[in-house]
Design brief:
This protein has about 550 residues and is an alpha/beta fold. It has helices spanning about 1-15, 20-30, 40-50, 60-80, 100-105, 110-115, 120-125, 130-140, 160-175, 195-205, 220-230, 255-270, 275-285, 290-300, 320-325, 335-350, 365-385, 390-415, 420-430, 440-455, 475-500, 505-510, 520-530; strands at about 35-40, 50-55, 85-90, 145, 180-185, 215-220, 240, 245-250, 315, 350-355, 360. The protein is globular, with a radius of gyration of 24 Å.
Length: about 550
């Protein structure tokens, strides 16, 4: 997969401009090897002692922005207890945007007006949804956001000038309050030691100031392949490069590169359409059928399947929702209900498979979503599973299995894919304070109750695990619960294979089972989770990882 993507990228991008090529070579020289393995805990301890924390950003990869949120989320309580001001500095903004940022965080400016005021599409243009989460976090935790990019970026200012300008702004921010901690998200090439960190050190030296700096790179490819050579890529999230210099490893190189290719192809196909419309339009312009076929082959190879080239599917995108909504139903009741449910699920979820017509619905360019639905489609083809989630009482455990096999496929393609385990759900729900929980909170609570029952009571035959309504009114809520439990089961199945506690044969056989009855699906679920829980795969998947 990676080799094919690299070849595609080379043909698409051609040669780099001379300045960027020079910057890139300087950057690569520093990262020939890492000095040792590290952990999230060790990284957090260094961050808490720091004053200037640099994060390398890969603009099209949502994980790059989420890493900053995870580090801030896990350190902000200690920082505030120690009465240290927390500031988030972003390359996507210039200092001229600071006033608009304050108004936006205060709720005095709508999202649409904010993006227009800062010229987001013209000046930045990467997926807003990736960066929006940073602003939501800042608003929730009262974190100040500042811009550090050169006002002439991105087209007129050289990379060196941008480094010098950013260093000047960062030095001014830290001079305002030397005890403050500044989290800085900026393109990864800027973080070679001779680039932005050097420019900042020179300014601080002139001012006779010292600031403890931590540099956090993300997903350096050459370091990933070194971990692969040692068989450690699935178990290591952080490596130490040198003192106060780390690399977070939470995304394989092919997923990282695919995010950039998707975005580049999208822009090439659709031009300067506003971000949300662009994402929708992309599915109309780009052909994902070969990608689905390639993913199915990779999943099949992993599980030892000898598969023909499967191509009897259609790919729908956001603009096709209207086709689903308007499609007439010639037969009464049953078909009408199925059609309505398919439309509802496609509208709610970022990706969804409609087996009656072999439609893979995608509302996201994420490789994780494409891989999951490719795996669900594969299961449908091999087992004949053709149903929709109509009623929790009869469908719940059957769809736990569908979601499990989908998530297993996504894990095969992206071994770093995560989901919430028992501890993660408990910690997440502990910080939610609301008298009117939404459906996502309700589904998390129900999933946790299910997991806690399994742990507390043991898996007893003929026992009711928790109430499943015999009504379609709450089918969306219980489908979300099935997703949570299914993802955890899929994660455990993958880890079982990787750790050689399970054979390919027995997991492969699951793809040929239609789980035709609720009782069969429940019985299988209880047997499998009892077996897998001996290895604690479902305890915590996210909390201790980056």
């Amino acid at each position: 997969m990676y080799d094919k993507l690299k070849e595609h990228a080379s043909s698409m991008f051609g040669g780099l401009p001379s300045e960027l090529k020079h910057y890139f070579r300087q950057y690569q020289k520093e990262f020939q090897k890492y000095s040792g393995l590290s952990t999230k805990r060790e990284l957090l301890l260094e961050v808490l002692k720091g004053q200037v924390i640099f994060f390398g950003d890969y603009h099209t990869l949502s994980q790059a922005q989420r890493t900053v949120i995870r580090i801030m989320r896990d350190s902000i309580r200690v920082l505030k207890r120690n009465k240290r001001k927390v500031i988030l500095a972003l390359e996507m903004l210039t200092p001229e945007h600071d006033a608009w940022v304050r108004k936006f965080l205060q709720g005095k400016l709508s999202e649409k007006d904010f993006l227009k005021r800062i010229g987001f599409e013209e000046n930045w243009g990467f997926p807003w949804e990736n960066y929006k989460a940073l602003f939501e976090f800042a608003k929730e935790h009262k974190v100040e956001i500042r811009g550090i990019n050169h006002p002439s970026s991105p087209n007129r200012a050289s990379l060196k000038l941008r480094d010098q300008f950013a260093a000047k702004i960062i030095s001014e921010i830290t001079a305002e309050d030397p005890r403050a901690i500044i989290f800085i998200l900026i393109g990864d090439l800027h973080l070679a030691e001779k680039h932005l960190p050097f420019e900042l050190s020179q300014i601080l030296k002139i001012k006779k100031q010292k600031r403890r700096t931590v540099i956090i790179h993300q997903n350096l490819e050459q370091l990933y392949w070194q971990l692969v050579d040692q068989g450690l890529e699935n178990f290591v999230d952080v490596v130490r490069i040198k003192k106060n210099n780390f690399c977070v490893m939470n995304t394989p190189p092919w997923v990282k590169l695919k995010s950039h290719l998707n975005w580049t192809e999208l822009i090439a196909e659709t031009g300067s359409i506003p971000p949300l419309e662009t994402a929708a339009q992309a599915f109309q312009e780009m052909d994902y059928s070969h990608e689905v076929q390639d993913l199915i082959q990779v999943i099949g190879n992993f599980l030892g399947m000898d598969l023909p080239r499967l191509d009897n599917f259609q790919i729908y995108g956001p603009l096709d929702l209207e086709l689903l909504k308007r499609e007439p139903s010639k037969e009464a009741s049953k078909k009408t209900l199925v059609h309505a449910l398919n439309f509802k699920y496609a509208k709610v979820f970022k990706s969804y498979f409609i087996p009656q017509k072999n439609i893979i619905f995608l509302n996201s360019l994420s490789l994780n979503h494409v891989a999951a639905q490719s795996s669900v489609y594969l299961h449908s083809e091999l087992s004949g599973f053709m149903d929709v989630f109509e009623n929790p009482k009869k469908d719940f455990y059957r769809f736990v299995w569908v979601e499990a096999l989908g998530f297993l496929g996504a894990k095969i393609i992206n071994p770093k894919r995560k989901c919430n385990g028992r501890i993660d759900l408990r910690k997440h729900l502990a910080v939610i304070k609301t008298d009117k929980p939404d459906e996502n909170v309700q589904s998390a609570r129900l999933a946790l109750w299910h997991l806690e029952w399994e742990k507390r009571q043991g898996l007893l035959e003929n026992s009711s695990i928790f109430f499943l309504p015999n009504s379609a009114k709450k089918n969306l809520l219980y489908y979300k619960v099935a997703k949570i439990l299914g993802h955890l089961l899929g994660h455990a199945l993958y880890q079982g294979i990787v750790d050689m506690h399970l054979s390919q044969d027995e997991v492969r056989a699951l793809f040929y089972r239609s789980f035709s009855s609720s009782s069969e699906a429940l019985k299988s679920y209880l047997i499998w989770v009892k077996r897998l829980d001996a290895f604690n795969y479902r305890e915590s998947v996210k909390w201790e990882r980056l």
